[in-house]
Each structure stands twice: as C-alpha cells, then as structure tokens.
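Example record used in the benchmark description.
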Amino acid sequence: MPTTGPLAGLTVLALEQALAGPLCTRHLGDLGARVIKIERTGKGDLARSYDSAVHGQSSYFVWVNRGKESIALDLKQPASLEVLHRLIAKSDIVVQNLAPGAADRLGASPDQVLAQYPGKIYCSISGYGGGGPYEHRKAFDLLLQGESGVIATTGTGDNLAKIGISVGDIGAGVYGAMAILAAVIERQKTGLGQHVQSSLFDALSEWMGYPLYFTMYGDHPPARAGVRHATVVPYGAYTCGDGDQVLLAVQSDQHWTDFCTIVVEHPEWIDDPRFNTVPNRRINRAVLEPLIEEAFLPYTRAQITDRLEQADIPYGDLNTISQFADHPQLAGRNRWRDVNLPGGQMRAVLPPMTFDTFEPPMGPIPAVGQHTEAILTELGYTPAEIRRITAP
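Model output (structure tokens):
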C-alpha cells in the first residue's frame, strides 16, 4: 500500500476492465492512493487475455495495473455483492467503466452510492458519456476513432488509418483522473463528494478541436497527410540522399527563412508567392515538398540534420518501437524502473508526472485475486466466511 504521495491515505475502489478505467486508477495509484481492483473470479480483467507478451502476462494489463490490489469476486452471488458494498463503504473514491447499466444492476450506480454516502467521489468512464442517444451503446476505441472523425484525419489520400494506440481510452482515463483530482480538492472545501464523468467520445471531441474548427470555418477538411502535417508545410518526414528520412518542423517565418538559406540553400523561396506564407505553402505543397526532397538528394541524413541544427530548426528521428525502447533520453533521465509481476520482472517507464518530493511507487502487477483473502480479512470476514465467499 502506498504511504507517500499527494493521495496517500485515500482508497480507490476500481470496478474496471480493459483500458480507460484501469489507466485512470493507475494514475491515482501513481499519486499515492491505494487502489483495490475488483476482478471476475477465474479469468479476471478481460485485458489479461489480450496477449501473453510480458513473461506470460498481457502487455495491456501490466501497463495499466501495477501497484493495485486484486480481489476476485463473482458479483452474481449475494455474498460477493455484500463484499462489494462493504468495499464501497470503505473507499474514498469509486471508479467504474463497466458496460452500460452494469453498475445499476449491482446497486452501485452513482445515484445509489452518493445517496447513501454523500462524501464519496464517484467517477464513471464510458464510451459516449451520460445522456444523449448513444449513451447505452457499447464502445471500443476503434469505433470511437471512427465516430469522432479521428480516422478521417489519419492516413494518406484516400487510404484511411486508425491511430495505432488506443487514444480514446487513454484520453478518457487521463481526463477521468483529472476530474477526480478536482473533486478531491472540492471535497476539501465543502465536505461533499460528487459524480464526475469522462468518456472516449468527449476526450476525442476535445482532441479534434483543430481539424473540427478548420473544417467548420475553413473551405474544406484538412487533407490526410501521412507522416506530414495536414496544414503546416514543411512539417513531417522527408527523404534524404542516402534514403533515410528526417522529421522536421518549420512553423514560423524565421524558421522558413533559415530553412531556405541554411538547409536547402534556396533563398529565392523565401519571397516566392507560392511559398511565402503558411497558407500558401499548404496550398502549393504538391510543388514544394518534391522540391525539398530534391534539394536533400546530394546530402545524407546526418548532413541534413547538421544543417537543421545550425539553422535551429526542430527535427527528430523516425524511430522504430525497439529504437524508442533504447532511446537515450529515457536512459539519460533514468526513466526506467524494475517492476515485479507473476512469472518474472519487467522494465517499466515512469509515469509522465515528476515531483520533487516523492517518486511514484511502481508497485508489482497483481495476479487474479491475489489479495482477496487479505482484503476480506480487513473487512472483518471470518476464515469460514472467506472460504464460503471464495469457494468455486
């Protein structure tokens, strides 16, 4: 159990599965909260079965469930339902991302919990949010990327592509944690809890702000640009003379001037009416981008990056995932920690929050129901009652 951090002393009950809910509660655990995770008896969280890449454990599961305590319950049984409600009474914060209507059937909806415990903070994470015609739709990240227009922004030309990570789940989990933190501060002022919500749809709606407003108030949607920017040119991956690619970003007038004079040695492009403003470079990208790669042809990637460095223009590598794992910035900032899990040990990256006063605990990955007996004992159950509750 964490003993340090800004949320130390708070207990989070996690009625969660898959990704959005578990990422939310893992962040709360990173901040020092105790997280008690309810799993199905037997197979546990469905994300445990997504793969077996990490010493027999799912890469999804180990990512978002470290440091939690796992209690395995069959919530179709009255005795396990009683345990659930004792855990609700004991907790400070309840987080659920179950299927629509599931929490209500368990007697654990936000209205039911807050009516009995007005000081609780209750967070619901869902696909489409509370209310509206899609409220009860089941939702997965791919579906929400499509519904929100994210897929319409991704790919090249007529070839659509989903984003390769579960951005909707990640956004909903992070915004859920943010809402909970705000509710904790509010409760310190008023003594009252509240129901907060986040959803995949709302997270992606927020992140679609630029292409949404560009389309609503511009003359057309931003073009799908692959590894380049839809509206800023040059911005993206460009091929050098040795066949390697470099990522670069020219965003300001000064960048454009320095790019033309120092990097490509075409100062006449600076005032060329086709290229002299960001909108003009976007309109004429089909002309400009081949010219850039033609100017890169005599030079290796290393030579181009030297010029970009000299011009103080942002650039980067187009890394593989394996290359990212060996990234010198991760090593140089000591961002890796060893984490125990059933069947071995793994390296895990520290969460993206750095504090002067403490380090996130980076606790072990639990086995299904690993803490069932200890938690039931803590709740006051006798050994005989524990055997009855946990019997197959």
